[in-house]
Amino acid sequence: MHNQDVIKACAELVKAGKKPTVGLVRATLLNKVPLAAVVKGIQQYQVNRKLGIVMRDDTSNENSKKSKDTPAAQATQHLSTCACESRVALLEQQLEKLTQQLIALQAQVQDLSGP
Length: 115
Prior knowledge:
Layout lengths: L1 H14 L6 H7 L6 H17 L9 H7 L3 H42 L3
Helix pairs in contact: 1-2, 1-3
């Protein structure tokens, strides 16, 4: 739950022309949020922004229920899904690269501690 609050605070700060920092975000939040959650939320906001993911403001459940059936809402949902899929693919590539680096480092350590 904290993550969504932090992301919303970041969006508000950017709308106001400010760069989201830990201090500004914490000052904007109504509830006390742990520092780690604020940092993680800011990072998530930055990644979402790079991928073009925009967080919806679901203040009205009736409007959001009605809008789910519209073609525009379906297209937005599809774009969000595509963005998530591309993000997962990117994370999988990073995981593969890190795995290869770990294997290489393990081999180096084994060579150093060898006979």
